[in-house]
Design a protein that fits this description.
8-stranded mixed beta sheet; alpha/beta; Rossmann fold; homodimer; 10 helices
DNA sequence: AGCTCTTATGAATCATTGA
DNA sequence: GTCAATGATTCATAAGAGC
């Protein structure tokens, strides 16, 4: 087993005990949403969601480095025509555990799930909650700067929206490829609203994240050699991206099919290098 | 005094008593944010914000029609490097008052306030919380359908063969499919993410809302002749838009300069009509 | 009319100073 | 100490001027 990655089959509430204190620089995960994914995770009832998550977040708080960051992708579902409050309750409960609720990023999903209801529009955003262990944490803002100004204006006028979407979904780092072509142009910092299309139908597994999303946070909060953890690693997107970016990747999942698939991927990687 | 509008100078916690039960179809307002606007509103401390707002929301619940809607524009500030939780607390407290938290729209402000800090990016979004009195409320979705962007029309008109091939080969992204669905369609429903720039320098008065924002919700949740209330009417944007859209407009504010200015505006309107 | 360029200015945030 | 006020930082817009 390489130091570069660690794949664990099991319940993260239990398996996280394997990890040392303060050993992880970035935790980024999209836990099963309430009442979703019944087949794989048993379906946590909205009213029990906080109670279910707190033992996990307690372990995450232990393994996270004091200068590290925890990014939690979550969105409340509508229950009885209302937004359920478990996410609000979770934020408050995690603060009592010792977490700092530093920021709430908005993930604007440009191609949100289709549908029509008489009392609400399509939900096209999710929360990306940033939690920290201390007020002093590592943040490499310059790594995620985006071009703007004349470049963006000219481009926006001359190119259609389709082109932009296509570019962003093709290049994992957003405008990364294009950025390199425009070195020397004006670069500006992004805001706390992130525009990314979702990826669908990725080899039969539902890809929770588009690859750009973990890539963006990995660039922002870690350096090469740091450790990135996803306790609900699912199809493995976070691990693959972290590994490609020369970070150590740890993934945990309770579904053996997911773990098998991820192990296969990393075996292939090692064989290539050999 | 016309039935078409009502302008009240005073503290809305008190003055709302003038309004009848169930008489308002839409409440849309942007109350003073915690610790902001000290000169005009006194600056409510974050820790006391919920306590300050609850008597007002209780009166709002009384005057709102059972089929009406309350849109609350609010955003928590950063305190001690953390996001404060008073908005989360407010949502929970209002639910205990009897409000239903139906939806949370995101207002993405394209021109957010400048600034740079080592631990956070610029804040470019605000919450637009939708509360209702009952699960059955009026919503006229077709009134806010948006035209398919020019980019899509232009793209569809001269869709080159290469484009078609490229799009179809990217079916896994879900995007190619969408394009074919848009053929022949002029209007689509919006989502719960609203993109609008703030208006600047409006004749000395800072316009809290861009005019489009109240206009959008007035179209969505009311019909001509319905009553629209803004208990923190400020420079009057909500009232002016509502009046232009043939809705009855009620505005309350504790700042006499604002009220004078709004009365002047409506006097001019009536003189023109005479 | 349609462009480009310039300028003013925001519901912000944190570090520093002062009571 | 704790708390409250001031200063430095900074960019996407609209509006206006000039070709």
């Amino acid at each position: 087993m390489s130091d570069e990655f660690l794949i664990i089959l099991g319940d993260c509430a239990i398996e996280l005990a394997q990890l040392h204190n303060d050993s992880v620089q970035l935790i980024i995960t999209s836990p099963p949403y309430a009442d979703q994914r019944k087949k794989t995770y048993g379906g946590i009832h909205p009213d029990e969601y906080v109670e279910w998550f707190l033992p996990i977040s307690r372990e995450l708080l232990r393994v996270l480095n004091p200068r590290g960051t925890f990014i939690l992708n979550i969105k409340e579902k509508a229950v009885n025509g209302e937004r359920h409050t478990y996410v609000l309750d979770l934020i408050k409960a995690m603060r009592e555990q010792g977490w700092l609720w530093t920021e709430e990023f908005i993930w604007h999903k440009k191609n949100s799930y289709p549908g029509k209801w008489p009392n609400r529009f399509r939900d096209s955003w999710e929360r990306l909650l940033q939690f920290n262990k201390s007020k002093k944490f590592d943040m490499y803002q310059e790594e995620v700067m985006v071009p703007v100004g004349d470049w963006a204006k000219a481009r926006l006028k001359n190119l259609s929206e389709t082109d932009k979407i296509r570019d962003e979904s093709r290049v994992e780092s957003g405008f990364g490829k294009n950025i390199s072509n425009w070195v020397g142009r004006e670069m500006v910092y992004p805001t706390n609203v992130i525009h990314m299309a979702t990826e669908t139908g990725n080899q039969g597994h539902s890809a929770v994240f588009p690859r750009q999303l973990p890539a963006w946070f990995i660039k922002l909060f870690t350096q090469p050699g740091d450790t990135v953890l996803d306790p609900f690693v699912g199809s493995g997107t976070t691990m693959f991206v972290a590994h490609e970016m020369k970070r150590c990747a740890i993934g945990i999942d309770i579904v053996s099919e997911y773990i098998d698939s991820i192990e296969e991927y990393f075996n292939m990687c090692e064989r290539k290098q050999a």
